[in-house]
Amino acid sequence: MIRWRNILQIAGYFILALAASLGLVVLFALFHDDDGFNALVLATLIAVGLGGCLCLACRCSPRQISNREGILLVIITWVTAGVIGALPFYFSAHFGNFTDAFFESISGFTTTGATILEDIEALPRSLLLWRSLTHWIGGMGIILLGIAILPLIGTGGMELYRAEFSGARSERLTPRIAETALALWKLYLAFSLAEFLALWAAGMDYFEAICHTFSTMATGGFSTRNTSIESFASPTIEFIIIFFMIVAGINFTQHYRLLMERRPRAFFTDYETRFYFVLLGAATAAVTFTLSFSSANFFEAIRVALFQVVSIMTTTGFSTANFGLWSPFAQLVLLALMFAGGCTGSTAGGMKVARIFLLFRVVSREFRRIVERRGIFAIRFNREAVSESTVQSLLNLVYIAFLINFAACMALTALGVDVFTAISAVAASMFNIGPGLGRVGPSETYGHLPHLAKWVLSFCMLAGRLEYYTLLVLFTGAFWRK
């Protein structure tokens, strides 16, 4: 039996936490006499009222939540975050309807970075800050922050942890799950501070340095400029962002081993990390090769290729060039990287490098089975045998991902979206990348799409962020049976 009072009470605490985040942006707007002040104040008051009412009306004695309740809480929290986050946009004069406001908000929290805005620079600075802050909050996972808070109100966090990372290869760093969350957040904060200082020293003003730090470390991609990082025309800024995008795309467990435990060997011998760098290097070389034919400066071709490859593979979505005008081969490389994504345990989206690596091993094993029919071949990852149940779960996840992808593409084409744009938009949304190809390329927005198409893509963003199983299990009869 699902204890709704317990779930709604915890959801109320999360809403109050979002209200506190909004409050910080309200102070920024007040200090700078910003046009977004009224919209932010109204959104904050609604969040405080709703969160307070849920906490008081559903007050009950703390209980350990079950796995099923954890899944429900994850979904309720993410959807609520999207709604609350949309309120400042909706109450401003820059978003015509709630659909656009919700799309922008859920794109922020899921670190997708897709936008409906034609003129980003027309937005008040406070709303630009809130846009980027939604990335940073969602980047390390709203729930990952929550499981550090839940023990304080007498509720365990393990079920929430499992629900948030239903399909990921997650590792616990410390004996207690709350300590794990806090360890990861310390690293997240440290990297964010380091990038902010580096961007500020490289010539960005403090406001843009903060916003781009939030977007980079969350691998989100929201910028304060219409032409993204290209508008700064600074190789130094580009290389700083490249470095931190690469950092954000690596499993934070590996960062912990390298920086906190001082175990560089464990970091550099990890199969996923090594394969991650191999893919980045190979894709950069391939794109550089194609760009060199049309570029007079070979080193410029390398810089542009490296930035765009890292941005797409880490699912950040920043741009320094309109890759929609590149050769079909270069675009195809980027499209393949959209599916790959970053490492498990990172803030990046995509299928994750570990899964791609395991798929290669699975296919290789099948070829060996054809040749040696009586052989027994184990799949190994980091020198450990991978269980058959894990392999089956991986294949199921890939199947579900492509099934959702196909269904969403069919829905978009039925709504009048051309095939190429539909495929690109769904991939960019499901794998939390943001800019795609066609009419949703780096120089385009999602604003021209039909309202229903935006809701379909919002579902894709959420499904991709929650690893598919967590969201789709709600549509099974087994979940609701007692």
Low-pLDDT segments, ≥5 res? 166-170
The number of distinct β-strands equals 2
Chain-averaged pLDDT = 87
Strand content: under 5%
What pattern of helices and strands is seen along the backbone? HHHHHHHHHHHHHHHHEEHHHHH
SS content category: mainly alpha
Shape: globular
Terminal residue distance:
6 Å
Biggest sheet features: 2 strands, antiparallel
Report helical residue fraction: 55-70%
State the strand order across the main sheet: 1-2
Tally of helical segments:
21
Rg of Cα set: 22 Å
Protein architecture, described:
With 482 residues, the chain is mainly alpha-helical. The protein has a two-stranded antiparallel ribbon. β1 and β2 form a beta hairpin. α5 (125-139) runs parallel beside α9 (206-217) and α8 packs across α9. The chain has helices spanning 4-31, 37-57, 67-91, 98-109, 125-139, 142-149, 158-164, 177-201, 206-217, 235-248, 252-260, 264-268, 271-291, 298-313, 328-340, 353-371, 388-414, 419-430, 451-465, 469-472, 477-480; strands spanning 380-381, 384-385. The chain contains 21 helices and two strands. The radius of gyration is 22 Å and the shape is globular.
